[in-house]
Please model this.
Amino acid sequence: MNPKLAENLQSQPKRWKYQIPIALIVAILLAWSATAIEYRGITERGPMMALNILKGIINPDTHILFGFHDQSVPYLLIETLSIAFLGTIIGTILAIPLSFLSARNVAPRPITAVMNIVIILIRTVPAFVYGLMFIRVTGPGAFAGVMTMSLTSIGMLTKRNTEVVEDLDKGVIESLDAAGCTRFQKIRYGVLPQLFSNFISNTIYRFDLNMKDASVLGLVGAGGIGAPLIFNMSLFRWNVVGALLIGLMIMVLIVEVISTRLRTKLARG
Model:
């Protein structure tokens, strides 16, 4: 072997001391997780149910799919879209000041510590549980879904926006300060340009997530397309289920494509 190559190999860090224990821990966790899962096989009616759902998607109820009444796909999709949009906007507006209060380079340490604990507590509870809680307070309907989306958006957006605020380039602000700019001018030309694109990108990403969450929240009665979907599945009305699934897939696909392009454009300037 080339002496120089052998010297390079010997000088490399001995990572196997860390890689082997990590691999063993992962293997133990996989084995332990497998013991907690009990597979009972496919039920007798399982293949028939799957076939009926497939037939419903292939032959959807056109009256539900293309009509416009309170149980039609367009109406339910608009309601779901409205829940996600309003929840995202409310959450974004409230998350902006909370992000500055949670940033360690802006607010005092005691305030940031309290705010971070509050945000962690908000993010701990799933959206499904928030939906059940708000239904008890406001009653079933779209308003409970908006409140749920708002609260979950606050938790995520505050965390992501706080990271953006903490990564501010102070050199730009110091340069504006040296040029004699006022506080408003420093915020206008030094702070907002650094935050705007990242804040908008995080909001678009959260709206994409809220679209999917709003569809599920209907299962607990918080408005949207989820409630009619589970109701018709329980009645084995597969043509209606197929129409609802087609509309839901088209809506999610459109929102996914648009949000991805917008976030990519913002990231690339």
About this structure: Residues 81 and 211 are 7 Å apart (CA to CA).
